[in-house]
Amino acid sequence: MKYALTIPERYRIMQHLPQEGDRLTMHDVKDMLEALRPTPKETEQHGIVETANQVRWSPEGIDKTAEIDFTTPQVALVVNKLRQLESDKKLTVMDLDLYDKFVEDKT
Known about the structure:
two-stranded antiparallel sheet, globular
């Protein structure tokens, strides 16, 4: 399944991915991280700078999207995390667009 994701959305998904799990889940996470990380071309075009505590990019790049292709289990990882945040009342404003794309579009 393909999703058009902005740079902030891609980084937000990376933050929500599990840090540990079973072998299959961690293979999915590894593949997702590779797909979500900006390419060297995107990094240069959008002035992306990663430090230990934050990521910055040029204002012009904030709305640029990239088509990211996910498998069904990978989408489930994102959907389940967003639903958990919603149910725990820990969903943030930064999560709303992702929630709309991944959860609302599936219901």
